[in-house]
Here is the input.
Amino acid sequence: MTTNKSKEDSEKDLKSLRKIRNTTSRATVKKLENIIYKKFKVLDHGFVRLIDYMGDDSSIVQAARVSYGKGTKKINEDKSLINYLLSHRHSTPFEMNEIKLHVKLPIFVARQWIRHRTANVNEYSARYSILEKEFYIPELKHMQTQSSVNNQGRGEKIDKENALEKRHIIKKHSESSFEKYSYLLNENLVGETLDLNNIGLARELARMTLPLNAYTQWYWKIDLHNLMHFLSLRFDQHAQYEIRVYADVILEIMKKWVPFTYEAFLKFRLDGFSLSSVGLEYLKSILKNKKFDTKRISKRELNEINSKFDL
Ligand SMILES: Cc1cc2nc3c(=O)[nH]c(=O)nc-3n(C[C@H](O)[C@H](O)[C@H](O)COP(=O)(O)OP(=O)(O)OC[C@H]3O[C@@H](n4cnc5c(N)ncnc54)[C@H](O)[C@@H]3O)c2cc1C
Here is the structure.
């Protein structure tokens, strides 16, 4: 069961929470301690908030070295071990570290996010609580046409007049959905009856009128290995802008949390590039100035290689 507590958390409560100091012999990361409970704003009403974490870069190294019976060595050796583990897909040492986030996000983003099954999730219950009248409205610059080259993406920016008109429709539709929600519930956020002559419907039924751009919230806990998998898919240019902005904030938190792993992740995953065997042959043929039948390689991979290597 989820309660209304998160909504009652005022900034004052958060400030006093952040003042609490506990002593521990466990690994802590100063840069994360400095941002714990702080809300990082995402989109118009969303946020990411660090709730808890376990481990640091040295915990990964320690876990990896169990088999040798040795602990942390010099910084350079730790760094190169992390590089080695990441580049050779030795994933379990990264699974030893965990992070817990509080995220507020539009429902259509949550639907993409929840596909990552390797996290633990507890979502705000709209059966138990009433959702605030908050919905995502894209900024004008993000009002774009359907892409003509990628069925799953956006194309050109729409001219201002058209963008304003279309955005107005989204806003009106969202407001009208929330009005219906409120009418069906017949109660306000604190549970007071709105109209004594109206019979309120159960929250679990009234919510059916809510639009996909309404905001939901959850606690999301994941280990570092699976977090990197999530980030490699959702920080990618193929991911939808509205989830990418969340991945962007989480990547910054990761940078503070495990800087060596972050560096290796950028080097071997985000900024790295993998090729199919045919892609490799294509690249070899270019280096050796030999002919290559481009019908053998998929158009998508060909375009990706050409753009990566400025060919
Ligand atoms: C750009 C983009 C477009 C997408 N488009 C679509 C779409 O059109 N339709 C759609 O339905 N989805 C779509 N998805 C979702 C996608 O197919 C994955 O479901 C999602 O990215 C989660 O990935 P995952 O399963 O690897 O992650 P996780 O669920 O976090 O799993 C991580 C890894 O754990 C392993 N694993 C987890 N669970 C199992 C299991 N039960 N069995 C075996 N191995 C498991 C796998 O190795 C997996 O890669 C899209 C995703 C992206 C990034």
